[in-house]
Write a structure and sequence with these properties.
It is built from 13 helices and five strands. By secondary structure, it is mostly helical. The strands form two sheets. The chain has a three-stranded parallel beta sheet. Strand 2, helix 2 and strand 3 form a beta-alpha-beta unit. It binds adenosine-5'-diphosphate (ADP) and tryptophan. One of its GO terms (biological process) is tryptophanyl-tRNA aminoacylation.
Length: 324
């Protein structure tokens, strides 16, 4: 089965991104055929500067390689290295109507926040559909927030097939409806835009600062504490199996341990879990040659799949090409 997903390079990864999305993607690598790319063209819809785009793009590639993407096992590339994707976007934009695109929540939300949208933001779902359909993906793991975009991709594929013949694979969404929203240090959804994140690759000092700033109630050391009402507990649970969770629950309920110590235990869990990845990322940032050659290997593999498919698509539509 072919699994495909894209990660938009939008800054620093945090625990919410890792536990909801990245961890699951990485597991697929050992079981299925994984196609994974950095969606740097999608990032243009929130462009602020060339410098930021360049930094975020390289940072996303580094993050994924450090977390365990193996360019030998999966196909890992940079979206902009495959020009057939933007070509397919144009073909697909003929089969979806403006009124349908106007229903996109992500578009409507940004407009409601006062953002003056470019046409690129409006057609964002078509580019995403092209990413998926060009590579004939069977399943697409994404967060709940991307559910509607996946529905658009399926709809576009069905319309295209109805008009031009059964060429495109209808992708299945792979969305964990039950994945809990990871809370930030203030208890709201962990999100870059709320500045309440615990970042995976920040310095130890910064991670410590974030953990120590987690909001708690004012119960004293001796008092029993309610784990189910605690952000510290909710975040720490992500690192634990059922037995571990029970032990931690008991520690909260018994009393005699202050929030300061509970935060210290959480800090240890975070640093322990991510230590090997953090080390790998440091090594990789000192050797960008490896990152570049990985992306080149991925580009070559992805491009040969893309090229085969786009030729079929051009022929089905009746697009002239001087290549026979
Ligand atoms: P942010 O809200 O920080 O900008 P993104 O929108 O870049 O995060 O999210 C990338 C992915 O991580 C999406 O699949 C999204 O569903 C997931 N994600 C982000 N924050 C959380 C969270 N707090 N809990 C669960 N999943 C999250
Ligand atoms: N829009 C996705 C996100 O923000 C990223 C993405 C781009 C993607 N193209 C894709 C995800 C294709 C899955 C398949 O998370």
């Amino acid at each position: 089965m072919r699994i495909l997903t894209g990660v938009q390079p939008s800054g620093k990864l945090h625990l919410g991104n890792y536990f909801s999305a990245i961890r699951k993607i990485l597991e697929y690598q050992h079981k299925e055929e994984l196609f994974l790319f950095v969606a740097n063209l999608h990032a243009l819809t929130t462009f602020s500067s060339k410098k930021e785009l360049e930094e975020n793009t390289m940072s996303a590639a580094l993050d994924l390689l450090a977390l365990g993407v193996d360019p030998e096992k999966s196909i890992f590339w940079m979206q902009s290295d495959i020009p057939e994707v933007t070509e397919l976007t144009w073909y697909l934009s003929q089969v979806i109507t403006v009124s349908k695109l106007e229903l996109a929540h992500s578009f409507k939300d940004k407009v409601a926040k006062g953002f003056s949208p470019g046409a690129g933001l409006f057609t964002y779902p078509i580019l995403m559909a092209a990413d998926i359909l060009l590579f004939s993906a069977d399943r697409v793991p994404v967060g709940k927030d991307q559910k509607q975009h996946l529905e658009f991709a399926r709809d576009i594929a069905e319309r295209f097939n109805a008009q031009f013949g059964d060429l495109l694979v209808i992708p299945e969404p792979d969305i964990d409806e039950h994945t809990a929203t990871v809370p930030g240090v203030d208890g709201a959804k962990m999100s870059k835009s709320y500045k309440n994140t615990i970042d995976l690759f920040a310095s130890e000092k910064e991670i410590k600062k974030s953990v120590m700033s987690i909001v708690s109630d004012s119960k004293g050391i001796e008092e029993p504490k309610d784990p189910d009402d605690s952000i510290i507990f909710q975040i720490h649970s992500l690192f634990l199996d059922e037995t571990g969770k029970q032990t931690l629950r008991d520690r909260f309920r018994k009393g005699g341990v202050g929030y300061g110590d509970l935060k210290k235990s959480l800090l240890e869990a975070i640093l322990d879990r991510f230590a090997p990845y953090r080390k790998k990322r440091e090594e990789l940032s000192a050797d960008l040659g490896y990152v570049q050659s990985s992306l080149k290997t991925g580009r070559d593999k992805a491009r040969s799949v893309a090229f085969g498919k786009i030729k079929e698509i051009r022929a089905a539509i009746g697009i002239y090409s001087s290549d026979f």
